[in-house]
Known about the structure:
Elements: H1 9-31, H2 38-45, H3 49-53, H4 59-70, H5 84-101, H6 106-117, H7 120-141, H8 154-174, H9 181-189, H10 198-212
Helix pairs in contact: 1-2, 1-4, 5-8, 5-9, 7-8
Amino acid sequence: MSTGRRAPKGDKRLRTRSQLIDAAKAVIHEKGYYAVSLEEVAQRAGMSRGAIYGNFANREELIVAVVETLWQPVVPKLQPGASFKDQMHIVGKAVAEAAKARRSMAVGAASFQLYALSNEHMRARIAKENAKIYRMLAKGIIRYIPADKLPMTPNKFVRVMHALTDGLMFEHFMAPDLITEDVIVSAFEALAGRAEPVAAVRVLAQQELRREV
């Protein structure tokens, strides 16, 4: 029995967006990122090309939306008051668990990186998005680890964490018996060492935070 209530317009938009992303996933799975065309995506979704532009600014934005649904950031649950090494242990465990869970997506993730490396606009978009994320994470990390305990400035530290996460994941994909959970956790725990004088880190951290205000 119908209630006579219509679904909110926002729900319809989300459904349309989801259908377009699913259609794009199908094309990528069959043909790769380079072969994605808006015409084929619209056709597979049973929609017009205009429906795509009503939800995505361009082809790159649609591809980014696909990748975001397949590859979510690793979000470790840091513990207030825990030691620096314990926090890094938590991060390492989260990365190790994600690496195991994502092994089936290794080829797709690698193919996207290859596509991005050969696409100047995509590289620029990723760099811009990462820069925003780094600024946010740099401010957030010092809620759990005081800046003067970090081995480098917060802004540099979160970039190293990102590079270490991706690097260890792909090495685990290649050789899971060599890049084990213990290796991954140990790599992050090693960051709890100190590479720069405390005073220098504190001054640089304060300078970074002032620039972000």
